[in-house]
Prior knowledge:
The protein is an alpha+beta fold and 92 residues long. The chain contains three helices and four strands.
Amino acid sequence: MLFVTHYRLIGERSKERTAELMALFAERGEAPGTQHHFVNADGGGGFVIGDESGMARLYEDAVSYSPWLEFETRPIITIGEAVPIIAEWMSS
């Protein structure tokens, strides 16, 4: 199963806090199961698409990054998986 995790920067956006956040990211790296990692063009956060192999690490990251980021994670499916379900529902 795939999950999308949206993260949002919180707190002061100083160079010092950004340096601390980047140092932590350099230390921790990408979580297992990460397939894509994007940042929002407005600089306010980003999102990660990953599979269930990284769920325990996702929780660790949420705790570790909590001084800088807020997280929201949701399960997702592809449109190819969703359309047959929608079609079946519509025909019933």
